[in-house]
Amino acid sequence: MRPALVLIASLLLGVAIGAASTIPQWTATNDFGSISHPEVKRASSAGEPMPKAVVVGDAIFEFGKMNVDATERHTFQIRNDGDVPLQLEEAGTTCKCTLSTLAKKMIPPGETVEVELEWHPIAYANEFTQTATLRTNDPRQPELELKIHGAVVRAIYMEPNEVNFGHVTAGDELSAAVKVVSVVSDDFKVTGVKITGDETGEATAKVVPLTAEELEATEGGRSGDKVEIYLPKGLPIGATKMRAEISTNDPKTTMLTLLISVQIGGDINFISAVKIDQDKNVMMLGTVSGETGKEVKVNVLVKGPHRDETVLSVDKIFPDFLQVDLGEPKKLNQTAVLYPMTLKIPPGTAPASYLAGNTGELGEIRLGVKGNPQTEEVSLRLYFAVE
User: Out of the domains of life, which is the source (predicted)?
Assistant: First the structure.
């Protein structure tokens, strides 16, 4: 019976050895779905030559702080300290981290390969950690995890992030100051400011270093400058919007955009039962019947220190079929003078459109102004069509 037992044991041992020497195809699952890896073969017997995967330095890269919606990269190094070639495969990454470069997948003994990770966070996070996994044929370390860790913050920000002067009187001098701050650099600077959208061409900006006290009052600021915006007196009545393009010495945030808005209200305003867009001085007459026409009463209100010396006259009427009658001024009280004005679209007017469509034209009543140093003319534009 003993020889039979030895034979059976030998057969079982042979089956076990055969099974150990054959690596079956297997499948791993990561964030991108199932990935099959039939070609990775691992050394399995003690004493056999084996590869040895070693991450040179640290397998975790601390990037500190970075700006949201920015892109960062870091290169890891993996060395083969074993006796046979080390085989590497991409086994998947977390959804916010990309394994962008794996220089080669078979590393001879003693050689090193570089692996580059790239990440692009789209939301703020005090703790931002992402991982890329490499599968190896090293039986002692079948997987390598490479991690990046840090905080996603507003690396560079403006305070305030826009300037709205609100409603102001024509002729007022306007200025505002904006802090431009970095929370990651000790040498951040504003290198230039360009203002666009200024019809007068006289809006200016000045860059001044932040004082230690001003920097301390910011939210985590380490360095920065103050941008002072100055608007000229001659801005037109109505809404004005500008942009300040702020360039910096930061290689990742070379340009910031500051929105600037102001509503200029003069001493002369139009008032009517018909809706008037005061931001643009546009009366919304709508659709008018050419057969019956339309008549609208408008009050022109003059305020301010020059109200009594101000004299109004009708300088322009467009289109020509409009009829405008500007009455004599009436002193309402100690603060305002009123000019009654009647606007008429006469019966029998031919069809026409002044809806700022393809032609971009609106109707217009332009009043000349004398005796008021703030303005020489004021216009009421008309949005209407005759059918």
Answer: Bacteria
User: What is the distance between the alpha carbons of residues 34 and 237, in angstroms, rounded to a whole number?
Assistant: 65
pLDDT of residue 95: 52
- Of 343, 342, 344, 351, the closest CA to residue 290 belongs to 351
272: tokens are: 């009517």
d(CA 174, CA 167): 11
> How many angstroms separate the CA atoms of 349 and 345, rounded?
7
* Domains of the chain listed by start with CATH number: 53-153 (2.60.40.10), 156-265 (2.60.40.10), 268-386 (2.60.40)
- Residue 244: name the closest of 162, 367, 166, 361 by CA: 162
The residue ranking higher by pLDDT, 155 or 324, is 324
Q: Which two tokens stand for residue 136?
A: 């190896």
For the chain, how many residues are written? 387
> What's the pTM value of the predicted model, to 2 decimals?
0.50
